[in-house]
Amino acid sequence: MELFRIRKDVPFMKHALVFNAISAITFLLAVFFIAFKGLHFSVEFTGGTVMEVAYQEAPQLEPIRDALSKGGFPDIQVQTFGSSRDVMIRVPNRPGQKLATLSNTVFEQTCKLAGGAVKTESFVSDKGEQISRQNCQSAQGAAISSIKRVEFVGPQVGEELASDGGMALLMVVIGIMIYLAFRFEWRFAVSAIIANLH
Question: What is the pTM of this model?
Answer without folding.
Answer: 0.58
